[in-house]
Amino acid sequence: MAELFKPITWFPPMWAFACGVVASGLPFADIAARWWLAVVGIILAGPLVCATSQAVNDWFDREVDAINEPQRPIPSGRIPGRWGLWIAIGWTAVSLLVATALGPWGFGAAVLGLLLAWAYSAPPVRLKLNGWYGNLACGLSYESLAWVTGAAVMAGGLMPPWPSLLLALLYGICAHGIMTLNDFKAIAGDQQMGVRSLPVQLGAQRAAQVACAVMALPQFVVIGLLLYWGAPWHALATVGLLLGQGVLMRWFLQKPIERALYYSGFGVPVFVAGMMVSAFALRGLPGVA
After folding, report:
1. What span, in angstroms and rounded, lies between the C-alpha atoms of 264 and 178?
2. How many Cβ atoms from other residues are within 10 Å of residue 221's Cβ?
3. 6: left (phi > 0), else alpha (psi -120 to 50), else beta?
């Protein structure tokens, strides 16, 4: 079950929720006083909702995985019969139960996140059949929804201010490119099973270029916003992190199929560091946080 839930995938939504907590603008003393809300929210974002999405995806992708990654728990038979489906359903229920502790905002966000998780993988919707809107749904769920939920929960259920919402949206769009990185390892199976990922639709090289552009361009907008809001040092730090990503992107574009997972492992942490820098930039800015 631990392998089915893929703990390595939990980090992005957990981190995004933490960014939302920071971007809430609450004094750190108040955040510390509500520490349990942050802990429950982070657990909900990662080991519960994200883990559920992985279980759902592996169940409905079992035929594709039998081609691409037959060693996974379901196609290998280590999770036999329909147990993969029952685990996905059971973890959905557990996620909803825990989400009630976070009030209407937390519960509503969990419902939306779980609906997107099932819609992404399960027929008849199966958003993942097209890499354009399937990856966008994942990015907005993993980053934007988690960020907004963290900010709202910590602020007692208040809607986050528009700058926080805008940054959450921009980083969610960036995550579309991150989702594309995961598709390079599954090209053969996706082609056979009719999954139109971006590497299948565009070819590996063009898909890699699109992924890098989608990750980079919103960050340029973030830098401009930080400068406009009067946070030049945060903007400068974000520029430095983006330059680091640029070096890694250039290396990745030389051999995208072979290097996609390596770029994901080294480039994504640099990207998410920029998210936290931006979240801190919102704190204390008049009219922003």
Report:
1. 7
2. 14
3. left
* Alpha carbon distance 242, 215 (integer Å): 10
Rounded Cα–Cα distance for residues 124 and 100 (Å): 29
**What is the reported pTM?**
0.93
| Residue 258: partners with Cβ closer than 8 Å, 6 or more residues away | none
Q: What are phi and psi of 130, to 5 degrees?
A: -130, 120
Reading the block at residue 285, the tokens are: 């800015």
Residue 196: strand pairing partners: 130
Dihedral sign from CA coordinates of 111, 115, 116, 121 = positive
Separation in Å, CA 241 to CA 4, 23, 65, 222: 32, 19, 35, 12
What is the total residue count of the chain? 289
Domain residue spans in the chain?
A: 2-282
pLDDT in tens, the chain (289 residues): 999 999 989 999 999 999 999 999 888 888 888 899 999 999 999 999 999 999 999 999 998 889 888 999 999 999 999 999 999 999 999 999 999 999 998 999 999 999 999 999 999 999 999 999 999 999 999 999 999 999 999 988 888 999 999 999 999 999 999 999 989 988 988 898 888 999 999 999 999 999 999 999 999 999 999 999 999 999 999 999 999 999 999 999 999 999 999 998 899 999 999 999 999 999 867 655 4
Who's near 157: CB < 8 A, 6+ residues apart? 103, 104, 105
Structure tokens at 169: 């949206």
